[in-house]
Amino acid sequence: MSRLMAALLAATLLLPMPDARAQGRGDPNTLRIKLFGDLRSLDPFISPEYMARNHGYMVYDTLFALDRQLRPQPQMVARWTVAPDGLRWDFTLREGLRFHDGAPVTAEDVIASLRRWAVRDGLGQQLMGLATAIEPTAPDAFRITLRAPFGLMLEALAKPSGQPAFIMPARVAATPATTAITDPTGSGPFTLRREDWRSGDRVTYRRNAAYLPRAEPPDGLAGGKRAGIERVEWVYLPDAQTALNALVAGEIDIFEELPPDLFPVVRRTRSLRLGGQDNVGVQPIFRMNQAVPPFDNPLLRQAMLRLVDPARVLPAYLPDPALWRDCRSFYVCGSPHHTSAGWVTPDLAEARRLVAASGYDGTPVVVLDAQDSTISHSLAMVSADLLQQAGLKVDIQAMDWATLVQRRLSRNPGPQGWGLFVSAPSGLDAMDPAGHNAMRSACERTGLPGWPCDAEMEALRDAFLAAPEADARRTAAAAYHARALASVPYVPLGQFSLVRGYSARLQGILDAPVPVYWNIGKGNE
After folding, report:
1. Domains contained in the chain, CATH given
2. Which residue has the higher pLDDT, 172 or 22?
């Protein structure tokens, strides 16, 4: 987000920057990162957590990847053709691709991976629903034959978030989609030894010396993935002040999702820098449990849509208005399908009227408060206050983010369940109906916490996926958005980019929509 970077740069230039000499800058061959959470699953196809997705980018590769302009580019694929009628796609892999155990990457591995990916991913489900055959045509080539054209083929194979179509060995991909994998073998630029993974402590990756990057320069998530550092450590430091002290002391090199109240310290430290963590941004969301009262009532959800004003909510996390956008849409600002058509004006009096008209019976709304997540905690407190202003009773329950992730799977009513939580999904997951999991309204079939249930929404999403060309997709996306304003699968709270603090020694950090750690090197003091 260019406005964010301009604001950060201006603030950095205006503030004094005394040097904070560390007690040692650490190993030049090791990159230590304080990530936003703790890696608890190695399966990026099952876990909805971004930690599992980011782990996937370390150890796996994809057939296609998005560049900085969010255009699909070949990654593992060397060349491809599509028949004039759009019903036959042929792909050939690059030469020399090997898994971490030395085995060559084959078409059989790709096919097995795509089949497992498609069990849970919406685009994958659409692709498999249209496919009459997915078969190898050579050890390093495969063909997808369709019964009807699928205009989003490359976008599906290059999907950057949610569940990216990572390629794993066929023997690993044979694991049922209901069972999490434990074998981290991939073909990506880094390797993970399973025994090095200690949940609640750290994850250690090693450079994959056998990886053959593409010849092109890196461009977003596409191009050559060149691991410039031998060892990458993800360090779990849940306390922000402890993590900041480690960054200033040179004990870690990157602090992801730096809380805004720590920006001044980083700006004043000559050996550190501030920078955007992603180039699309995130969309914080107010997620309601629609499987149980009170948010199973559509009129009450309409009240929530009128209750939320991003200009009142977002300053709780980002006081500087230059760092966030009052983006009133289910699609993030800057996405091809963004629209604010039909968006209602925030109106507390109208929200109160709708709460009363809904027949709300005083059932307390359990608000899950992840206190180790600055974003979730700050915005959950504001949301709880808004609920009370609208006339709802609130039961705020404090926990850590890992507990929230487990708790939100509950469909139980009452104080042991939940009514609302706040998270900040990547803007990549709010671009269009295809990948927008928060808008999915397939009841319990998606397994997504909140369980919106609206058959018309799902039909409109299918129409988008089936649209043969861009104009038809735009029309379908607008209809999907209009229906969402009526059904209210969730409430967006605006838009902003995450910020990382990092050592000034680091070179080559990529401008990408997902934080990735290839192409980075360490310079001198």
Report:
1. 2-33+236-279+498-522 (3.40.190.10), 43-185 (3.90.76.10), 285-496 (3.10.105.10)
2. 172
